């Protein structure tokens, strides 16, 4: 877990896209001992576990590169992004505030694993999982409506 945090922080400080950070293998959706997984809302965690199982049956390994985050860690990510992008307004396109982040309340996951984000973008609604932001293909939340349809993408986290 510490290694994941450090790797992500380093990637952001260096201005690399979070997709680069996803090169970290991430945690198994079944690894409850990892606070990033154990801190997730149970409904979201179950949905991701079911999606990961289905993805695995098609040869796609899905991990969680970032799930639950402490408010302090979210603030650190935002502070780092301000340094990287030059202003709070620019940073907010990529990183939410601790008050706004769904990660802090355990209701968002960033997925890793080769092709896992594309797989979940195409198949996630079967599990209630939706990509939320046009500029973050790895970020998913439980967001389908009563008919199982995902909402339109928001341009970015500042929307
Ligand atoms: Zn995210």
TrEMBL record:
The biological processes this protein is annotated with in GO are:
proteolysis
In terms of InterPro entries, this protein maps to: DD-CPase-like (IPR052179), VanY-like_core_dom (IPR003709), Zn_M74/Hedgehog-like (IPR009045)
The record's keywords, sorted A to Z, are: Signal
Keyword Signal appears in the UniProt entry: yes
Which residues does UniProt assign to the signal peptide?
1-21
Pfam families associated with the record: VanY (PF02557)
Q: Where is the D-alanyl-D-alanine carboxypeptidase-like core domain?
A: 40-124
**Could you cite one Gene Ontology molecular function of this protein?**
peptidase activity
Keyword Signal belongs to the record: yes
Concerning CDD domains, the annotation shows:
Peptidase_M15_like
Q: Which PANTHER family match?
A: D-ALANYL-D-ALANINE CARBOXYPEPTIDASE, PEPTIDOGLYCAN L-ALANYL-D-GLUTAMATE ENDOPEPTIDASE CWLK
- What's the protein name? M15 family metallopeptidase
Species for this entry: Mycobacterium yunnanensis
